[in-house]
Amino acid sequence: LDNILWRQTQLNCYADEVQTLRGVDGNERSGRLTVAKQSHIYKLLPFMDEEGVLRMRGRIGAAAGVPYSAKYPVILPGTSNLAELIVERYHRVFRHANKETVVNEVRQHYQIPKMRTLINKVMRNCAYCKAMINTRPLTYIPVDPENQEALTPNHFLLGSSSGIKQQPVLPTNYRDGLKSNYKLAQHILDGMWGRWIKEYLPVITRQCKWFGNVREVKVGDLVLVVDGNVRNMWKRGIVERTISGADGRVRQAWVRTSSGTYRRPVAKLAVLEVVSGDHT
């Protein structure tokens, strides 16, 4: 069955190469013939085995003790559904391991061009890996088990760190149920907002001036203006002018927001770290 899937996939994507190595009469040509230089797999030195499958001829063909599949891996296009299913299977078999582990294991049997791009696609579409990412703590994990659990992205997305969204219970009175559900949702969001301000905000403001020098607020910085504890009320703005103190350090800044320009102390400004596309 594997040979059939390999041959069909190769015929769909590498029809010219298959025809070149097989011959017009349908029989495999003898000798060390190769495909045209314009072919995407020319540098892989492809050849056709006894089963009619395209394989890569590498430099370890004469190595003793190496399995045949590792010496001559099957060539599969990275854009094919079969290659994606194979990578997905290895990703699950090795328990959602890191990318290089999957690359190493797949290469024992297959040669897939742009394999890392395909693995990245599989990992992005993996629900288990997304859940794992969203369960990583944003704040310090409490030592005392009686304390609240650390905030995670799932708290904001689903209301809990487990990644399991609780199914709502339908109320007897639909109108009263909507009111109570809304109030409960607002209460939960307000609680997480308070914890975010208390636990996570100090991390992004980087209050470490007593241990080393940090970059000061400068003109052009994108900032959040910390204004009270009301959720969703902090304004986003751009620093237009800075004001230095007697010690020469920036102490205040003029920030332009959608509702006007304000003068605020730097302690009330949270700088948002924006990375341009050239550095990603």
From TrEMBL:
The record's listing under InterPro entries reads: DUF5641 (IPR040676), Integrase_H2C2 (IPR041588)
Q: Where is the Integrase zinc-binding domain?
A: 81-131
Question: What organism is listed for this UniProt entry?
Answer: Anopheles funestus
Annotated Gene3D superfamilies: 1.10.340.70
The record's section on PANTHER family has: PHD-TYPE DOMAIN-CONTAINING PROTEIN (PTHR47331)
What is the protein name given in its UniProt record? DUF5641 domain-containing protein
Taxonomic path:
Eukaryota, Metazoa, Ecdysozoa, Arthropoda, Hexapoda
Q: Where is the DUF5641 domain?
A: 181-272
A Pfam family for this UniProt protein?
Answer: DUF5641
